[in-house]
Structure prediction request, 135 residues.
Amino acid sequence: MSNLETAIAVAAAAHMDQKSDNGDPYILHPLRVMMAQETRETQILAVMHDMIEHTNTSLNDIYSFGFDDDIVLALNAITRRDDEDYLVYVKRACSNPIARPVKIADLRDNLRAYGDDEEHRARYTKALEIIGEAP
Prediction:
């Protein structure tokens, strides 16, 4: 199995019982973010980008699945810390060259999903603006 196939399999298993706010299987969000990527490395990160924050998966688990340091470091960068200011987090995530295109695609997908909600729209629009990626 390739690293991308492994990433898809572990992400699907980790998000198995989760639903998005609209009732869709949560894994569809990471898959959409993955499909927006141009490199294998960013595709792998994209499909796993919410695993640390939204599941019981740890960075050590990611290592145990066979992913290299670059992927684990990028996954660490794209994971928001407890009590971390949202815009500080977005800037930090985008400082990692693998995480940056994934975070941009994540923000754009969230903007599409929550665009009718003024609070969410403002949050994601501001985040894209501060990293120089106006929606």
Q: What stands out?
A: The CA atoms of residues 29 and 109 lie 7 Å apart. The domain at 3-130 is CATH 1.10.3210.10 (Hypothetical protein af1432).
